[in-house]
Amino acid sequence: MRHIINFNDNWSFHKSDESPVPVTLPHTWNNVDGQDGGNDYWRGTATYEKRFAKPELKDGERCFIEFAGVAMTADVSLNGKSLAHHEGGYSTFRVDLTETLRDENLLAVSVDNSANDKVYPQMADFTFYGGIYRDVKLVVVPAEHFELIKNGTPGIKVTPTVRLNSREAYVMVETWQTGGTEVWVEIPTEHVREFRRVDAYGGHAVTNIILKNVHLWDGLEDPYLYTVTARLVRGNEVLDEISARFGCREFHIDPEKGFFLNGRSYPLRGVSRHQDRIGLGNALTVKEHEEDMTVVRELGANTLRLAHYQHAQEFYDLCDENGIIVWAEIPYITKHMTNGKTNAVSQMKELITQCYHHPSIVCWGLSNEITASSPVTEELLADHRELNELCHELDSTRPTVMAHAFMLEKDSLLIPIADMASYNLYFGWYLGELEQNEQFFDEYHAMYPDRVIGFSEYGADANAAFHSSRPEQGDYSEEYQCVYHEHILKLIEERPYLWATHVWNLFDFAADGRDEGGKKGENQKGLVEFDHKTRKDAFYLYKAAWSREPFVHLCGKRYVDRAEDTTEIKVYSNCGNVTLFVDGKELETKSGKTVFTFTVPLAGEHKIEAVSGECRDESVVRKVDKPNESYLFGGAGNVVNWFDKEELKPGYYSIKDKFGELMRNPATAAIVGRIMAKASASRGEVAEGTKNNKALQQMMAGLSFESLLKKAGANVVPPEAVKSINDALQQIPKH
Question: Which residues are designated catalytic?
Answer without folding.
Answer: 369
